[in-house]
Amino acid sequence: MTRWESYLVSAAKVINSYKGDLPLHHFLKQFFKQHPQMGSRDRRWISQLVYHYFRLGWWHTDMDISERLLLGTFLCEQQSNDLLEQLRPEWNQQIAAAPEEKLAISGAGSLAAEQLFPFTDELSQGINADAFAWSYLRQPHFFLRVRNNKQEQIVSALQKNGIPYELLENRTTLALPNGTKIEDILKDKSWYEIQDASSQQTGHLFKPAKGQSWWDCCAASGGKSILLRDQQPGVQLLVSDVRRSILENLQQRFAAAGVKNYDARVADLTNPAFPGTMGRVKFDGIILDAPCSGSGTWGRTPENLRFFKKEEINKFQDLQKRIATNVIPFVKPGGVLIYITCSVFRKENEEVADFISSNSHLVQEEGGVIPGYGNGADTMYAVRFRNKE
Length: 389
Ligand SMILES: C[S@@+](CC[C@H](N)C(=O)[O-])C[C@H]1O[C@@H](n2cnc3c(N)ncnc32)[C@H](O)[C@@H]1O
Description:
methyltransferase, S-adenosyl-L-methionine
């Protein structure tokens, strides 16, 4: 058996044993731990094959696995590669063709959006189902947000290391190839944050003013809070999350980014007793970056196309409504609430936004879907409400 054929066999082994109960990258890590004879090149190829396989969603699930692995590689890769050259050279010659052309060349028949992404009837308004579904065939980019005006220094380090990059029009967002080991290239952590392009765009809704008090109530490791403080270093900041461990990550990330003077607390915002623990405090701005299906980021975790259960969407909506209900009373009259998800589902987006405005004095001012699928970024939803009390 050639090296390339053995990659197909190993990838098929992974696919047959993976049941979706933990993220695919964790599963692959475990798999490689059990097969220490595989070197880094082998691991890279097998992982890539498996990811391409899942990028095809529910299309041709009855096809022979090896055939589907090759088809996934043909449709998802844009550059000639050794595996196809050895196993399907006639496809490798056409690797740069448009996806529609590749479909015809492969003889695999037509491809409808619902076959790739089985939840098209759940999409938020304004998301183009075809363009969104087809975006799964491309691995998303890796994005940086430039801080402290270090564009020139960063670009020159990337050029020195031969890393291809695109500096977007706003001159603060950099798109890089996925898997770039940026920590090895940029030693000064204060120059940049790793943050998806759409996540960076949510910041356009913040508009903080000096001296205001803000609460990032589902802060995780603090990506939105750092963005907020970069816009307005003078805001007073409270961060909270239900997970103590993620707030420890936040503290390290803030220290590396030079973010100081903030309050942090562990808080479960679904707990009905929670509001009583906050005292009489109110905020000029609250960022509610809600726990969600993450369906706008599944280009990075395409195994979800096969393993996510539609019923989960309602559970997320329920969680989002409960958290919003507990958070709304803490917006000052005249203050703002920014509701954010990285979901493409109407139930987690517009329906929760409608729930917020129907059950409070909050009025939606601006925002909506941030469609990242056209430029290799995540798709998000972000809306800004003002308290008209
Ligand atoms: C989408 S993430 C936030 C991402 C973060 N804002 C950022 O920019 O990196 C949602 C966060 O909500 C937190 N969360 C989930 N359930 C919660 C609850 N009941 N109360 C408070 N936080 C919760 C999760 O732990 C998770 O860190």
